[in-house]
Prior knowledge:
alpha/beta, Rossmann fold, six-stranded parallel beta sheet, 12% strand, disordered C terminus
Amino acid sequence: METRIDRLGSVRDGKIQQLKELIAESENIVFLGGAGVSTESGIPDFRSGTGIYNQDSGVTYRPIDIIAHDFFMENPDVFFDFYKRKLIYPDAKPNKAHKALVRLEKQGKLKAIITQNIDNLHQEAGSKCVIELHGSVFRNYCMDCGKKFDIEYIASQEGIPRCDKCGGIVRPDIVLYEENLEHENVDAAIKACKKCDLFIIAGTSLTVYPAATFAQFLNHDRIVIINKSSTYMDLKAMLCIHDSVGKVLDEAVPKRVSKKKASGITAKKTAASKKTASVTAKSKTSAAKTAKTSRTASKPSSKTTEKTSAKSSSKTTAKTKASKPSSSAKPAAAVKAKPASKTSKGKKQGSSK
């Protein structure tokens, strides 16, 4: 609960300044947000005095009972009547809180937004690193065939929305009471918390689990709470601000990065790119030299090959001629030693006549 001292301008200004310093010192910020983040967009929260749980549901059932799994399965007509009147706000727009978080993400400091909201306003504002613990009213699917539908389809249907393909009930992709959260989303949230160096909790009473326990995974005590009402973490937090989430974040998050810081970031990126280019060039040069050396060692030039072949061939021929006479040629001594036959003599005599 907001205290009297929190209303003093000097105290509030001091807390905003402290938050600015914490953000400036941090490089890995995680934001955990609840329904209080979207109240300035015209979407009511759940547990405040004017919240959904304290409003007239329009039926004989309590709001908290209507949005439970068993009730939905047994009374889908009552569920969708309440759902369309109280949980769908298709015309809502991002407020200062959502826009400030987009700036923080673009500055490279905000690494994850863990949201319990189902209104899709973080994504509409431009945030990329959003973990939706409880789903989104903008996603809907047929419980029988799985066909997907947008929020306009649900809003335009009278009574229970039915699939235009198989006739099954089309339900919103949100987590109702008595249903389990997606394990992938919970694991991603815990992993982000373990890595962060500043944990900002805003717009949530920290009474819904498992989100209420994420702070136990931190490796530090750098916790900031921004909430109009008190939470069980207030005394453990490094900084606690009881005020509007949008106003606080809009003041604390710089509208733009200073020129000095921007030039520093650019210089670092340029130096890194030059270093990478230099290493790449050296690698290519080294690879080229290695390839050239390898080719030279393994493949002699064509001229050298021809000369070597010619010399080898001539030497081989010479040796062959010197050592092995031709089989068709006969020694001169053998010819002289062979006596002439009688037939040869007679022919010679006849020819002389």
